[in-house]
Amino acid sequence: MRIGVISVLFPTERRPAFGIFVKDELDHLIKYVDIRLIAPLPNQSWFEKGKKSMHEPYPVIRPFTLAFPRWFLQKQYPNSMAYTLKKYGRAFFDGCDIVHAHNAFPDCVASVKVFGKKIPVIVTVHGSDVNVFAMKLNLRPDIVHALNNVNRIICVSNSLSDKLKEIGVTSKTEIISNGIDTGLFFPGDRTSACKFLGIDPDRPRIIFAGNFYKIKGIEYLIQSMPLVLQKYPDCELILLGAQPGRKDIVLYRDSIVSAKIENAVRIVTKVAHEKLPVWMQASDLLVLPSLKEGFGIVAAEALACGKPVVATKSGGPEDIVEEGLGFLVPPGNFEALGEGILRVLDGTGILNSNAMAESIKSRFSYESITQKIVGVYKEVLNE
Fold this sequence. Notes:
The chain is of the alpha/beta class. It has 2 domains: about 1-180 and about 365-380, 3-Layer(aba) Sandwich (Rossmann fold); about 190-360, Rossmann fold. Helices cover about 40% and strands about 15% of the residues. It is built from 16 helices and 15 strands. It has helices at about 20-30, 45, 75-90, 105-115, 130, 140-145, 160-165, 190-195, 220-230, 245-250, 255-260, 275-280, 295-305, 335-345, 355-365, 365-380; strands spanning about 1-5, 35-40, 40, 60, 65, 100, 120-125, 150-155, 175, 205-210, 235-240, 265-270, 285-290, 310, 325-330. It starts with a strand and ends with a helix.
């Protein structure tokens, strides 16, 4: 079985974590199917140094595609990508049994335009394509039309499937989450991890790991810290994921100063994906304060490291954080976040680390996730 994959989301040498979940999925799928990948490079990435992909175990091409900013002609982005796919994709995907696009916009819209009447098309929706782009009235008709002309939609969370139904998508959906590498994320010794990082092993520690975007709710996490510090005055908050340079590092400085918690917050720039587990192992819990979250893979990764999670009911986390694994709180509520953090630090209703890791491994390991995806491929081909 040969699968042609289309995804703008894919790492480069300069941005090794960009779309890493797509790369990781393909690296495991290659054990079961033949893969060919088109990972278009939009104009803002085309001129970057380090734009090449790392060596992959399957054929990859990275053709140029003209992207449009959100404020100007964004509706034309799929047409530009469709032109790219016509020019490069038809020959490259010769012999493919299925086209699998990642993201409804622009990838799925373009894929349906080019391949929809020739071979089956499957799309995985990840979050922002539904929660952001499909909510724009000028983009929604094209997105819904494309999604209603695919053979199957894979949603990484139940909330995304519900959202698609709300906006008029009728194609059959499957709920298959992103997978995690349980060979990379597993429980480790906290003291050893702290010593490796050169941080105090005796301080209680909270970690946030992700992009410094407003939708991630970091502001509310910062506001919750004074509540936590009243009971745990030595507690430290790690904000991991700032882009190198000044912008992200100063982004929340005013909020940190206003909350008078300068001595309790450490901002860490982005780290390579393989270095993330040691930061989780050195912490006591992870907080995911997002206002909207398609899945929230970092929560599953933390739990695989045996670390409980306090997350918001923002879409994806509801499929991850079960009883004994942490707590779910309303989004945009710093007091609820603080209370959840305190409950975890107090050890209230939390499983031991190995039990947490086993729960996640059984649900989200790539071994189980890839088998589900291959099952969808076989089902579509038999229809």
